[in-house]
Design a protein that fits this description.
The structure is a single chain. The chain has 127 residues and is an alpha/beta fold. It contains 4 helices and 5 strands, in the order E-H-E-H-H-E-H-E-E. A hairpin with a 5-residue loop joins strand 4 and strand 5. The protein starts with 5 loop residues before the first strand and ends with a strand. 45% of the residues lie in helices and 26% in strands.
């Protein structure tokens, strides 16, 4: 993967999930900045969003990859999500499906799936 000054996260708007992901990605990828694309319940948004909504996410990923040189995008789900309330097992499957969706867009960027647990710690779902 290499070190990049930027990485990208498609994360929940819930602030509790943002700092753990930022710190984890900075440490894991040696990045200084994390471009945040936020939605309430991001996996639900990706899997059930309209073409217009998905086009907006694609445009943001493109900016992060092409203009900021981001080499990785993380799809994040988290515990106690108000925008997508469901059990962890369902959330993990949604994260995997969302990773597959982003892969299908053929960006020259690695795609990973992360889950932020009830201790606000990052768990890797898929790399």
């Amino acid at each position: 993967m290499g070190n990049h000054s930027f990485a990208t996260a498609i994360n929940c708007m819930d602030g509790r999930a943002q700092l753990p992901v930022i710190h984890w990605m900075q440490k894991q990828y040696g990045t200084e900045y994390i471009d945040m694309i936020t939605e309430a319940g991001p996996t639900k948004f990706l899997l059930e969003g309209s073409e217009e909504q998905l086009s907006s996410v694609q445009a943001k990923i493109r900016i992060s990859a092409e203009n900021h040189g981001s080499g990785v995008v993380a799809i994040v789900g988290h515990y106690d999500c108000a925008g997508n309330p469901c059990p962890k097992e369902d959330k993990v499957q949604q994260i995997r499906s969302s990773v597959d969706l982003i892969h299908s867009w053929d960006f020259p960027i690695d795609v990973i799936g992360l889950y932020v647990n009830d201790q606000w710690e990052v768990e890797v779902v898929t790399e």
